[in-house]
Specification:
The protein has helices at residues 21-30, 58-78, 93-102, 135-139, 170-179, 193-200, 234-247, 263-281; strands spanning 4-8, 38-40, 83-87, 109-114, 160-163, 182-184, 206-212, 249-256. It is α/β, with parallel strands linked by helices.
Length: 287
C-alpha cells in the first residue's frame, strides 16, 4: 500500500529560541515528498496561551492536535496505507500515535520512541513548560486537558520502548523506574537485536516508530535544537528501523525536530533524513 505523509509544521511545542525554524525544516523535507501523497495541517502563527495549565502555548497545540486528528481520520477513510507524520516538534505525535493505537486492538501496538530525550515530564516536573518534553507522558494519558490521551488512544507504559535515550531529567528517570519502562541507550543499539527483543517483550504485533532527529549523533546532523553527544550513527538508526519492520507491522511513523539554520544547512542534512524516510517507507524485507 502507498505511504501517505502528514505534514504538521508545529513549532509551539518547542522551548528553543529557534522554534519557528521547525517550520522551515518541515518545508525542506516536504520538498522531497510526492505532493499527491502529502497532506499539510494548517498551523497558526499565534503562540497560544497556557490557560493556567503549566503547558506553554497549550491553546495552539490543542487546536493543531484537533486539526491533525481530523486529517488522520480523512486519510484513513481513503484506504489502507502507512501514514508518516513529519513535524514540527515532537508534540505532533500526540495525534498520530493516538490514531495508530486506537485503530488496532488494545495492546497490539508498541511505541518505539527513538529520541535523545525521554519526553516524559509533566507540567509539575518540566523545567521549561514546553510540550515537546511532555508528549510521551500525554500519550500515556497523563497531561492537562485537553492534551491527555484517553480511551483506545491511550498507550500503556508496558507498550513503550525508549531507544537511543541518553538525557533524562531526574523526575523522568524516577517515572521510568516506577513504571518499568524499557530503555535502550545508544550503546545497546550498535546492532538492532536488543531493540527487537524489547519490542517482542511488550507482546505487540505492530510498531509505531517515532524518530526525533536528535537521536542521531551531532556529527551526523546539524539541524537539531537540542543535540546530545554520543548518539546513533545513521547506519545504526536505519538498521534499527529495517529490523523492526522485518519483524512487526508498521502501524505508523513520525520524523520530528528538524530545524536547519538556513537552506544550505538543510541541504546538507537532507540526505540523512531521506535515508531514514526510505527505511520507513520502502517495502519491508520479506513483505
Amino acid at each position: 500500500m502507498p505511504t501517505r505523509f502528514l505534514m504538521v509544521p508545529q513549532w509551539q511545542g518547542s522551548s528553543s529560541s529557534r522554534a519557528m525554524q521547525l517550520m522551515d525544516g518541515a518545508a525542506a523535507i516536504a520538498g522531497d515528498l510526492p505532493s499527491s501523497a502529502t497532506t499539510t495541517v494548517d498551523v497558526p502563527m499565534e503562540a497560544g496561551e497556557s490557560l493556567g495549565t503549566g503547558v506553554q502555548r497549550l491553546s495552539s497545540i490543542a487546536a493543531i492536535r484537533d486539526r491533525a486528528v481530523a486529517a488522520l481520520t480523512e486519510l484513513s477513510a481513503i484506504g489502507d496505507g502507512t501514514i508518516v507524520t513529519i513535524g514540527g516538534d515532537c508534540g505532533v505525535e500526540l495525534a498520530s500515535v493516538g490514531h495508530a493505537v486506537a485503530s488496532r486492538e488494545p495492546g497490539s501496538v508498541a511505541l518505539v520512541w527513538l529520541d535523545a530525550h525521554g519526553d516524559l515530564n509533566t507540567p509539575d516536573t518540566s523545567p521549561s513548560g514546553a510540550f515537546h518534553g511532555m508528549v510521551v507522558r500525554a500519550i500515556l494519558g497523563e497531561a492537562p486537558e485537553p492534551l491527555a490521551a484517553g480511551g483506545r488512544a491511550k498507550l500503556t507504559a508496558g507498550s513503550l520502548v525508549l531507544a537511543g535515550t541518553r538525557e533524562l531529567d531526574e523526575p523522568e528517570a524516577a517515572f521510568i523506574d516506577e513504571e518499568g519502562i524499557r530503555v535502550l541507550p545508544p550503546e545497546q543499539l550498535h546492532t538492532p537485536d536488543e531493540l527487537v527483543t524489547a519490542v517482542e517483550s511488550t507482546g505487540a504485533t505492530a510498531v509505531y516508530i517515532h524518530v526525533d532527529l536528535d537521536v542521531l549523533d551531532p556529527g551526523a546532523i546539524s539541524g537539531v535544537q537540542f543535540p546530545e553527544p554520543f548518539g546513533l550513527a545513521p547506519d545504526e538508526l536505519v538498521a534499527a528501523i529495517v529490523a523492526l519492520r522485518s519483524r512487526f507491522e508498521l502501524a505508523g511513523a513520525g520524523i520530528t525536530e528538524f530545524a536547519p539554520r538556513n537552506p544550505d544547512a538543510a541541504a546538507d542534512d537532507l540526505p540523512v533524513i531521506l535515508r531514514i524516510l526510505g527505511a520507513l517507507t520502502r517495502p519491508a524485507p520479506g513483505a
